[in-house]
Amino acid sequence: MPRGALIVIEGLDRAGKTTQCALLESRLYNSRLIKFPDRTTPIGQVINTYLTTDSDSDSSPLLEDHAIHLLFSANRWEALPSLLASLEAGETLILDRYIYSGIAFSIAKGTLGYEYARAPDVGLPSPDAVVFLDLPVDVAKGRAGFGGERYERSDVQERVRGCFDEVRRREGAGERHGWWTVVDAGQGIEKVAEMVEDLAVRAMIWAKKNELRRIE
Ligand code: NYM
Ligand code: MG
């Protein structure tokens, strides 16, 4: 049986990833959606506390930047057996955020470097397609819920947006054409959904003919 495709949806906060992931899952036959961070595991609960707490300071951080970075990565590694089982069973796996959020949100802090940030994810499955839902920060800011969690501040989001550009340049180099696609998330939900579905179908065709790779 051919393996399933690994499709990653990325973007800034409030870009519409959750909506688009749910729509994609409902439209693709034999698909499964996994969200990172997965807040349901013990590691995920620590991450959730970090994201929902703002009572720390520079002198007394709730979690030091490297420490929380490694927990986000550990939260992906703990899902590995489940990810591989799905792909081997031929399921299309949709990931709501993945290592690219891990790198971009962490390097935006300025306290850890690019190579450090990507290193813990080396060995995880490499996606067949990355869809970046792109939305200007001032539009995201006007969406319901913005500001509810750590990182949901305009200045932080602007920095993260620039970091995602760096991630796209560095991680996409040498990969097949169209591997990372930026989709204008400001279009209507249905328009975006059609574009995402089209990209997903292409990734599924690619996955049928190409072995699963790992992040190198
Ligand atoms: N985030 C997400 C990270 O900082 N590193 C990671 O590795 C991942 C997967 O968590 N602002 C950040 C991005 C988001 C926050 O994600 C929570 P979500 O999708 O809003 O639940
Ligand atoms: Mg969020």
Describe this structure in words.
The protein is α/β, with parallel strands linked by helices and 216 residues long. The protein contains 9 helices and 5 strands. The protein has helices spanning 17-27, 42-52, 65-77, 80-88, 99-107, 114-118, 137-141, 154-172, 189-209; strands at residues 6-11, 31-35, 92-96, 129-134, 180-184. The protein has a 5-stranded parallel β-sheet, with helices on both faces. The radius of gyration is 17 Å and the shape is globular. The structure holds 3'-deoxy-3'-aminothymidine monophosphate (NYM) and magnesium ion. Magnesium ion is lined by residues 13, 149.
What is the compact description of this entry?
The protein is an alpha/beta fold and 216 residues long.
The parts where pLDDT drops under 50 for at least 5 residues are none
CATH class type: Alpha Beta
Helix content: 40-55%
By DSSP, the count of extended strands is 5
Helix run count: 9
**Total domain modules:** 1
Shape: globular
Q: What is the architecture at the second tier of CATH?
A: 3-Layer(aba) Sandwich
CATH topology: Rossmann fold
* Oligomeric grouping of the chains: single chain
Largest sheet: number of strands, sense, barrel closure: 5 strands, parallel
CATH superfamily descriptor:
P-loop containing nucleotide triphosphate hydrolases
Which ligands occur here? 3'-deoxy-3'-aminothymidine monophosphate, magnesium ion
* Structural class category: alpha/beta
Task: Report strand %.
Answer: 5-15%
